Amino acid sequence: MITSWFLQPPAVLVLVAGLAAVESGCSSPVDTPDTTQEVASLQAMAVRFAPADIAADVSGLPENERRALTKIIEAARVMDALFLRQVWSGNEAMQARLAADQTPLGRARLHYFLINKGPWSRLDHNTPFIPGLSPKSGGANLYPEDATKDDIEAWLKTLSEPDRARAMGFFTVIRRGPGGRGFVAVPYFTEYKGMVESAGAALKEAAALTTQPTLKRYLNTRADALLDDDYYESDVAWMELDASIEPTIGPYEVYEDEWFNAKAAYESFITIRDEAETKKLERFGAELQDIENHLPIDPKYRNPTLGALAPIRVVNEMFASGDANRGVQTAAFNLPNDERVIREKGSKRVMLKNVQETKFRQVLVPISSVALPSGDRGNVAFDAFFTHILMHELMHGLGPHDIHVGGRATTVRQELKETYSAVEEAKADISGLWAMRFLIEKGSLDRSFERTLYTTFLASTFRSIRFGINEAHGRGIAIQLNYLLDAGAVTVASDGTFAVNPSNINQAVTGLTREIMTLQAEGSYMKARALVDTLGVVRPEVQRVLDRLTHVPVDIEPRFVTAESLR
Ligand code: ZN
Predict the structure, then answer these.
(1) Containing structural domain, residue 417
(2) What is the CA(5)–ligand 1 centre distance, in A?
(3) pTM of structure
């Protein structure tokens, strides 16, 4: 599942009308006032995605691996075509029509179409932006476009259990039956035959070129899987990948199927392993037991022997396509989604460092120039930002998980019920700050982080809350910001800017880490509910900053310059 920090689009925050003042700058003599207005409106929607180069260092790759990479990207481009068809049956014809239209309106429409992979604006609840279109079907083109969700549910009830499971499987589309009567489940490898064959062939060529055994195995097994939709072996091969090139390609996430979250959308992330960050992660991994042993909680709640942690990879993206390149860009993901592979092999978290860095530059830095006093802006640093994200991921594995309540063995997740996700996200953030401070004191982390750590975190809280507090990350961030405000560790100046108070911040971070981990250890739903209800809110002084962010981009529009240079 994708759990990126940029996952939830802040649709309610950035309304198109609020941005309509953007200049169109390109009205031609033939434009009527109507088309000029439409061009301006399309540009106002598109400008929320700041164009940005996405590059990765491939200079260290030998010639054969570069050629393999070129072939992998060739296969990845097919995922764009596959996804376009999965979104809507009219997409390919519409793209061709828009591409042939050289007027300013045609170009503006094509640009925004490509960002959204279809004629519906994903940041605006899928509102159509090309006139005369119906609302986007919740079932996309994964079900017959003239059927309703009720039709499909009624049909599912008539099926035997094995047929029902097949109909609701990841890798079948539902089509009308013979003569338009009833429905049938059609396997992806049949529905998308020509396209998956060409992607598979390119992956086979790449497999023949690489000399890295785990990569060769993934490419070969994935190429076979695209042709029979049995992904188990290639998912296992993906878990065991240990290579300079780390591709993820195939049908994975189910968000495009808004009716049942059952059908996987084709996508790709083609990435290069980041050696320096991978080493940093290993170093942190070796510190985890010591961090656990010093957590600011009652020693009886500490875990004397931490188990193995889920693997984390830090990579740089050089190409993304299909479901991985529409609307808001993914910055990190957990895969696979297949329960059988997860049971047997676990899952892997992949962090796209250069995507995070681009969002940091294009979104977080502009936010900090609104939210922070000018003297503090120099303390907003990518190194602190990214190291804290790594620490956040690691801290999910620390602290209380399996607990006893009244002598009964249970888990924090079970006891905290619907408050669990927000509380657990807040825990990972705040204890991540606490752990970085601990490592600085210990001499395991550079002292320079002392200056940037908290101010960078403060700037990032506005970025998260902007995406809404109805989702666990945003709600968890609101809890922390309000706690720090109440503790006098963050202060608000008369001009509305926020600053870290160095004399109170360490104590407040320790205090909230203790409070959250203790209520988790006690399995106290009441305390968790109270924390979320009182602190998981957007206060007026925070809202005033959010209101001043309308000119700051919501996300990025990637240009894959390294991938282009390999062509
Ligand atoms: Zn998290």
Answers:
(1) 363-552
(2) 8
(3) 0.88
